[in-house]
Design goal:
The complex is a heterodimer.
Chain A (H helix, E strand, L loop, with lengths): L4 E6 L2 H11 L3 E8 L2 E7 L8 E6 L5 H10 L5 E4 L3 H10 L4 E7 L3 E7 L5 E7 L4
Parallel strand pairs in A: 1-4, 5-8
Antiparallel strand pairs in A: 2-3, 3-4, 6-7, 7-8
Chain B lengths: L8 H4 L3 H12 L5 H12 L5 H13 L3 E6 L2 E6 L5 H6 L13 H5 L1
Antiparallel strand pairs in B: 1-2
């Protein structure tokens, strides 16, 4: 068994597509119109055959209070791995991305949390080399 | 008549977890509950639930030691030192005495 899909629920799929590709740098893998919405997945250019991230429309009514509560407490529900959190933070801030938590050294990892502009907080995490 | 808070300052700082929360907010102002919980686990070994930390934050806020503000859709927390002045005013420190004191780290040893 393998994990092939994970998802983020987004307010607006087209805006999300723009943010996840142009700002974050992911690539579109699937973009299939399905009536009102579309089946959109993106992948990392570092792993084009790897896990796909589904940009899921926020259609279900339960999604709204769930996401609101997570964002209120600053909880990222999705995390991406990066080699250098400081460098990514600098790059994304220059792109106008708002961070709710700047790079923070927590001992074994460095993390930061940003707003994806589509209703989610996303964590980036760098695993530090063990001494 | 000075403003009085709902929770007195002595009760607020009588708890090790609440002191650690203040330490972390002094280290960086404007943290979410998520960030604070992460720092408490990783830096202090305090693995209380988010619910428990949230209740500690309520006590600190009621004592006037933290203030909260919304940024975007997130609730962030700030340290406010002003209520601590009451302690120094009540028991002033004269300039010629030894001011070394014990910290949480000394107590744990």
């Amino acid at each position: 068994m393998r994990i092939n899909l994970s998802g983020v629920v987004v307010d607006d799929q087209q805006r999300a597509l723009q943010f996840y590709t142009e700002t974050l740098g992911f690539r579109v893998k699937h973009n299939i119109p399905m009536g009102e919405h579309a089946w959109i997945t993106v992948v990392s250019p570092e792993a084009p055959e790897g896990t796909e991230l589904v940009l899921e429309p926020a259609g279900h009514p339960a999604v709204i209070p769930f996401r609101k509560a997570l964002v209120e407490d600053g909880i990222p529900y999705t995390s991406f791995a990066v080699d250098d959190v400081e460098a990514e933070h600098e790059r994304l801030v220059a792109e106008g991305v708002r961070f709710v938590q700047p790079p923070t050294d927590l001992g074994t990892v460095v993390t930061a949390v940003f707003d994806d502009t589509c209703g989610n907080l996303i964590q980036i995490m760098e695993e530090k080399a063990q001494p | 008549m000075p403003y009085t808070y709902r929770v007195d300052i002595y009760r607020a700082i009588a708890d090790r977890t609440r002191r650690a929360i203040l330490d972390e907010l002094v280290d960086r102002s404007g943290q979410s509950l998520f960030e604070l919980c992460g720092r408490l686990i990783m830096k202090h070994g305090i693995s209380s639930s988010r619910q428990a930390i949230s209740q500690h934050l309520d006590v600190l806020e009621a004592a006037g030691l933290i203030r909260t503000r919304r940024e975007g859709r997130s609730k962030l927390h700030w340290f406010v030192g002003a209520p601590l002045k009451a302690i120094g005013e009540r028991w002033p420190v004269s300039t010629d005495e030894d001011t070394s004191h014990s910290t949480d780290e000394d107590i744990e040893k």
